[in-house]
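Async update (no meeting this week)

Hi team, since we skipped the sync, here's where things stand on the single-chain job. The sequence we agreed to prioritize is pasted below, unchanged from the tracker. I ran it this morning and attached the output directly underneath so nobody has to dig for it. Comments welcome in thread, and please keep replies under the output.
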Amino acid sequence: MIDYAWMWSELLVRWLHVIAGIAWIGSSFYFIALDLSLKPGKALPEQAHGQAWQVHGGGFYNMVKYLVAPSRMPD
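Output:
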């Protein structure tokens, strides 16, 4: 009986590892695409590198990338 429990736990851990790997690769592709879509803007804060607008789930997102820490961090 312990052998079956061990076998099922190995299977579960392997599938969790596969799913975590797929999620990691997907988030890497997302951030590469985000970096490539950054556009410079005239109204950007002083130390900002670029901004990108995205639409997802009925909402609009405005992302601003800083290469160094901004003068004021959000609370």
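Quick observations from my side:
The chain has a mean pLDDT of 93.
The first helix runs from residue 2 to 36.
Reply here if anything looks off.
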